[in-house]
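Dear Dr. H.,

I hope your travels went smoothly. While you were away I took the liberty of generating a structure for the chain from your last submission, since the lab meeting agenda had it listed for discussion. I wanted you to have the full record in hand beforehand rather than looking at slides cold. The sequence, exactly as received, is reproduced here:
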Amino acid sequence: MKKKFWKSVAGVAVVAGALVWYSVDRNDGGSPQADPEVPEVVQAAAGALEIPAAVPGGRTVQHGAYVTSYNTTTLIPNWVAYEITAEEAAVRRERSDTQFKMDPALRGVTQAMREDYSGSGWTKGHMMPAADAAFNTTAMEETFYFTNVCPQNETLNAGDWQYLEKRVRSWAKRYGSVWVVTGPIIGKNKYGTIGERDVVIPDSFYKALLVRREDGSYSSIAFVMDNDDERYLLKDCCMSVDELEAITGYDFFPALDDRIEEKVESKVKKSDWGIK
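The corresponding predicted structure, in token form, is as follows:
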């Protein structure tokens, strides 16, 4: 995916700086629409290590700093994928006062809105945190699209989940970059939905991370935190990427050579991540 600017390619349209698969829907004034019949992962991002295998029914959008697979049924992303480098992780910028908004790359597609969250008791939780896009004002503003947002417990959002996000930036500084895939786990949907549009509240959230060591080998780790106000130590909520794949049904880091992927995703070397 790296990274920031993309030219138009066959089969996609450039909409507000994003790449999105589209077809012209004559019933909607001919405005570009994401096409469910084409491959989910946009060609511009294909082969990037952070991009998972296709999720049926996902509407995938490439923004400046991340790719999101948006679910038009749950109105939250299936996953959000990006790479953060050491240089980007070192940038500090005050969080933008940008309001959360609908993703302009999916005009005509039902999305969550601010009023769905109003009075719900749930915060608007970034999947790619704004701080990971601090290297560029536009990139930071794009993290406020609802295609990058899920209903999240306030204590989790401002607590252990935020701590994990900070650790991701520290690992980027240590290894030079981190490939990140993050998103919700709907599970049994024990919390139901919010708003008139029935935005689904996830049961949990996950992160799958991949780094390249100095010797050129890879190391991976995954985390799952429930969407509640419990406290989570990283040593207690970490797992192998294989274990996370069994939970989510997703195939993470498929661009790795199969032999490398099998070895890297099957176990966690906690010392690579400073976890005891």
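Two observations you may find useful: The chain has one domain: 75-271. Helices lie at 86-89, 114-117, 137-142, 154-158, 160-175, 234-237, 241-248, 258-265.

With kind regards,
E. W.
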